[in-house]
């Protein structure tokens, strides 16, 4: 699930690692593509075949060496799912953060969901 992926990225960047390997799932790939688009991670490479596929994620850091992923807040959890309509979605940290939502049209950012006028399960926020 994406919980493990996000925590692996946060922990690896906190200790200064350059890359982290993550087991492949389509949901994780979609989330990582969004994170790379907004430069929270540098690049994603799919490796392996079949059951042994992994995602090799290169982490991104600021000029002063601080990790780009400084904090993560999980909104929807396995024990309590949180669903939001598009009118209830707002920007994260006044535009300095990123909210990820799972919609019927796929996984997208909160801003894209508002533009598409579609709601769904609010997964997490990252800044």
TrEMBL record:
UniProt keyword terms in alphabetical order: Ribonucleoprotein, Ribosomal protein
Cellular component GO terms, alphabetical: cytoplasm; ribonucleoprotein complex; ribosome
Note the InterPro entries from the entry: Ribosomal_uS8, Ribosomal_uS8_CS, Ribosomal_uS8_sf
Q: Which BP terms from GO are recorded?
A: translation
Molecular-function annotations in GO = structural constituent of ribosome
Which Pfam family, any one of them, does this sequence belong to?
Answer: Ribosomal_S8
Q: What is the similarity comment for this entry?
A: Belongs to the universal ribosomal protein uS8 family.
Q: What is this protein called?
A: Small ribosomal subunit protein uS8
Q: Which organism is it from?
A: Candidatus Liptonbacteria bacterium CG11_big_fil_rev_8_21_14_0_20_35_14
